[in-house]
Inverse folding.
């Protein structure tokens, strides 16, 4: 289904990922501090232009065998030795808190029943034994906990195991790109009806931030249908879905025919929509080309070239506002960092919208000019020709993209009576998208396993 080399090479490898391989996610080979150059794809097990590099593939999870388990009373940990000679360590308190017995855990909901007020955080261990390849622990209150080796191995506390599991759960690795990107492309109907196609789409959306879907009906409705494939769409003050046309008395500059600078949508909301769909129903007679830029890639360039500007945009907050009447009347106000970092200091979200950036600027006088200097420096990087990806949506195409990461804009356009530009849009949150991705991955892996067993 994929129409370019990136997707043909990368996504099949990614969709087969298990927790032991998920760390080898798709990576960009352009790192902070690296000189500009052609972007490369660096997945260690993929085929790239005829050259194959190999990674060591650990045994399947089902093959984990416990050789020995013992209590380290001084360290207050259980040591589990695996068949390959490696060891994992599990704190007493964590094991007691996560007992999997019916009294402590509701299996049908996969939720803990044991209350924290009933957990002795200083508990010891009376006995440990390995029975039928499972680790059994007898606690001082004579309660017994039994742990499956696959469950334990997946939750190993080693740095490498933790990083692998976090990558599997959240797909944090990104492919950073510039104007040379070959946009991943999929078939709309295949995504709607085929789990593997839908999984490939969502993985690419997470990794690259941008996927085109072709072959959608040239009428209103496909974005809602696509949202239902995931779960449900995000309703905002512009409605469940919204029509992008040139309107009289427009309540948003997007509803005009003028040029739109690259921006993220809805920073005026406290919780910005994470994903956006735009479906082209009709295109303008002239103009209307779309611009997109990888905001994370641009932020790293700013950090490398102008550290002071980067610090300014990650520490000083801008004010955003949005008001009007559409789905209902609204008056929004928020304060956000232009470049938002997570607890590890990594870029988490871009909040940048020139149209809704408020004239209110809640900064001390001496910080106003530094803010403007930094903001202009970032905008200059975002608009560099080598960073800006330009394309023209055709009727029946849906562009799906990461609204926390990508900035999008539009060239001005001219309508004619028989060629009136008409797009339909919808928002989703990343929680729903990642939930569906995980469910699809489990379903596809289970289906692949069943096919393999039938062939044996």
């Amino acid at each position: 289904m994929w129409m370019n080399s990136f997707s043909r090479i990368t996504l099949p490898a990614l969709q087969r990922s298990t927790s032991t391989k998920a760390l080898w996610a798709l990576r960009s080979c352009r790192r902070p501090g690296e000189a500009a150059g052609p972007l490369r794809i660096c997945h260690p097990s993929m085929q790239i232009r005829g050259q194959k590099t190999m990674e060591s593939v650990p045994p399947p999870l089902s093959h984990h065998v416990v050789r020995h388990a013992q209590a380290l009373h001084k360290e207050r940990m259980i040591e589990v030795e695996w068949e390959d000679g490696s060891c994992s360590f599990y704190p007493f308190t964590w094991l007691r808190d996560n007992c999997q017995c019916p009294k402590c855990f509701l299996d049908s909901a996969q939720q803990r029943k044991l209350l924290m007020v009933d957990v002795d955080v200083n508990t010891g261990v009376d006995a440990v034994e390995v029975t039928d390849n499972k680790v059994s622990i007898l606690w001082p209150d004579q309660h017994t906990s039994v742990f499956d080796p696959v469950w334990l191995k997946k939750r190993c506390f080693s740095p490498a195991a933790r990083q692998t599991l976090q990558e599997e759960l959240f797909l944090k690795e990104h492919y950073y790109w510039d104007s040379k990107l070959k946009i991943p492309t999929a078939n709309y109907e295949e995504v709607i009806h085929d789990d593997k196609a839908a999984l490939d789409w969502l993985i690419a959306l997470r990794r690259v931030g941008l996927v085109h879907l072709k072959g959608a009906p040239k009428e209103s409705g496909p974005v809602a249908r696509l949202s239902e494939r995931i779960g449900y769409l995000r309703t905002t003050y512009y409605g469940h879905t919204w029509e992008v046309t040139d309107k009289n008395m427009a309540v948003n500059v997007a509803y005009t025919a003028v040029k739109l600078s690259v921006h993220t949508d809805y920073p005026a909301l406290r919780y910005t929509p994470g994903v956006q769909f735009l479906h082209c129903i009709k295109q303008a007679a002239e103009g209307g080309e779309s611009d997109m830029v990888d905001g994370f890639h641009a932020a790293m360039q700013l950090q490398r070239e102008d550290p002071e500007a980067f610090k300014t945009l990650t520490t000083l907050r801008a004010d955003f506002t949005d008001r009007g009447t559409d789905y209902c009347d609204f008056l929004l106000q928020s304060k956000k960092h232009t470049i938002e970092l997570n607890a590890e200091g990594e870029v988490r979200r871009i909040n940048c919208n020139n149209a809704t950036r408020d004239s209110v600027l809640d900064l001390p006088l001496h910080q106003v000019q530094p803010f403007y200097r930094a903001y202009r420096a970032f905008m200059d990087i975002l608009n560099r020709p080598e960073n800006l990806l330009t394309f023209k949506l055709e009727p029946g195409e849906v562009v799906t993209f990461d609204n926390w990461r990508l900035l999008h804009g539009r060239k001005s356009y001219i309508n004619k009576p028989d060629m009136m530009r008409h797009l339909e849009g919808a928002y989703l949150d990343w929680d729903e998208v990642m939930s569906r991705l995980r469910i699809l991955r489990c379903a596809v892996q289970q289906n692949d396993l069943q096919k393999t067993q039938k062939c044996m």
Remarks:
- The longest strand covers residues 317-325.
